Amino acid sequence: MTNTMGEYVAYDHNADYCMGIVGSGNRNFNIQFCLTARRYAERFDVPEIAEYELRGTDRDVSRVYQTMIKRAREYEDEQATAKK
Predict the structure, then answer these.
(1) Residue 52 region, left (φ>0) first, then alpha (ψ -120 to 50), else beta?
(2) CATH code for the domain in which residue 10 is found
(3) In 3D, which of 57, 62, 64, 58 has the Cα closest to residue 22?
(4) This prediction's pTM
(5) Which tens digit of pLDDT belongs to each residue from 9-60?
(6) Cα(32)–Cα(71) distance, rounded to whole angstroms?
(7) Count of domains for the chain
(8) Is 40 exposed, middle or buried (0-12, 13-18, 19+ CB in 10 A)?
(9) What is the dihedral of CA 12, 18, 20, 26, to 10 degrees?
(10) Cα–Cα distance between 82 and 76 in angstroms, integer?
(11) Range of the domain at 53
């Protein structure tokens, strides 16, 4: 796992502001593809919202962006519901 990232998210209340995790990796590593992203999602109880391989493609950029927009809307709805 990327220790610096994990420490940053775990610090104080930072995890409360995490809307989701996007992972990247190399599919040659099979089960370990995006493993860190899956572990962070579980550890911080947030969804893993997207994955892409290596540097990604233009199509990945568009797909991940659209997924992030969707997740941001869901997060806003969750926050509004929690305040009621």
Answers:
(1) beta
(2) 3.40.50.360
(3) 64
(4) 0.84
(5) 999 999 999 999 999 999 999 999 999 999 999 999 999 999 999 999 999 9
(6) 24
(7) 1
(8) buried
(9) -60
(10) 10
(11) 3-83
Helix axes 35-43, 3-10, angle to 10 degrees: 20
CA 35/CA 41 separation, integer angstroms: 10
- How far out from the chain centre does Cα 56 lie? 15
- Residue 27, pLDDT score: 94
List phi, psi (to 5°) of 23: -115, 150
Predicted pLDDT of residue 1: 55
DSSP string for residues in 6-66: HHHHHSTTGGGG---EEEEE-GGGGGGTTHHHHHHHHHTT--EEEEEETT--HHHHHHHHH
3-state secondary structure of 1: coil
